[in-house]
Request: fold
Amino acid sequence: MEFDIRPAKDEEMGQLGLMGSYSYAGAFGDGEDNVVATSTKAEWTLCAFDDAVRTDKDQATMATSFCAFPFTTRVNGNAMAMAGISTVGTRPEYRRMGLLRKIMTRAFAEQRDRGQTIAGLWASQAAIYQRYGFTHAGLNRNYAVDTVDIQLAADPANAALTQPVVNRYTPAQGLDAAREVYKNFIAQRTGYLHRGKSLWLNSTLDETTPDGPVYIAIAGSLHAPLGYVVYTLRANLVDNRARAQEIKIRDFAWLDLASYQSLWRFIGKHDLVGRVTWANAPMDDPALALFQEPRMLHSQDTEASWWRIVDVAGALSQRGYDVEADINIGVAGDDLAKWNNGCWRLSTEEGGAKASVAASSKSADVTLSVKSLTSLFCGMYRARDLANWGLIDGDASAITRLDRLMATQYAPHCPDHY
Reply:
C-alpha cells in the first residue's frame, strides 16, 4: 500500500475537520467546519493520503493528519521559533503502519529548514510521543479552593507592600492592559507563547464555552496595569447550599508580589463562590508559600505541554543563559533527526547573553539523548537528577557545570492548549 505524504489542499481541509472530530471524539466540534479545520491553514499540515480510496467528493482519503502551528515561545528570556504540533490522528484502518513516524521524520526536517529549532505539543497519549523524543516541558498545577480559605499568611518581609486596587472589566475593556502585563510577565520565562490578538480572543477569552461570560480583573489601572486574572463565574456548580457558585481561573499573570496578592484577595471577596479552580497554574506558582492553609488549595500536578529539540545546534545557540561556560555536549541515538547526533561545543559569553554552538571533534564532557537534553533545555529537570537516574554520562564536575548552564529563572510552563 502506497501513501502520498504532503500538505492538504484547501479543498481537503474538510477531511482534516472530520479527522479531528473522530480522533478527539467531538471535543473540538463535529463536522467538516469545526475548529480543527477553521483554525488551521492548509500550508501548516502534513498528511498521509491513500489515493486508491476515494471520498464521496472524489478526493484521496486522508489516512493520517498532522499540522504544526508557527509559534514563537520564550526560553529563559529569549524568543524562539517553535512548531506547535496539533491535530495528529490516523483512521483506525490505517493504524500500525508507521505513517506517523514517516510524517514526523519529514516534519522535523522541514521544521529545521524553517528555523523552528524546537517542537511542542499536548500529548493525547504520552507513550505515542515519547517514541519521537518528546519530554515534559512543565506541569499544570491544579487548585480547587473555597473562597473562605483564600487567606494569605502574614509575612513581616512583605507586610508593608502597598496593595494595588483591583477592578473588573469586560474582555473588550481589559484586553489591551492584560496584553501589556502578559508581555512583561513572560519576558524572562520559558514555555509561554507570544500571543497574537486572535490567540487571546479564540482561547484565553473564548466566550463560546458553557463556562459563561469571561471577566478580566486588573490590578493597578488600565493605563498602568500590574497584574490580571481572567476568569468565568457560574451558579449551581458547587454542592454548597450557601456558596453554590464556581469561579474558573483561565489565566493569571502578575508583575510583583503585591499585585499577585491583591488579585487573590479580589477573588476571595466573592462570598457566594464555594469553589475556585485554576487548572493551569505553573509549577513555581507562589500560592503554596503564601496561603495560610496551603493544603486547602488541594494542589495536584498533571501533565502539560511536551517539547522536543528539532535542531540541537540551532536551539542551544538561541536559548537564553545566565552564566558563562564552555562545555562539549554529546548527543546520541536520534534516528528521526540524525543531524543532531554528535558532539557540540556550547560556549556562552557576556554573562550568558551571547551563545555559540559548533560541532566538535573533541570528546564529550557529557553524553545524553535528545529527549534528556530537551528536558534540561527547558528547565524541567536538573542535570544532577538525570545523572542520578542514569540518563546522562559524565563526571561530577561536568554535570555541575551543565546544571549551572541550563538553569532557568522560572519553571517551564505553557498555559495555552493547542
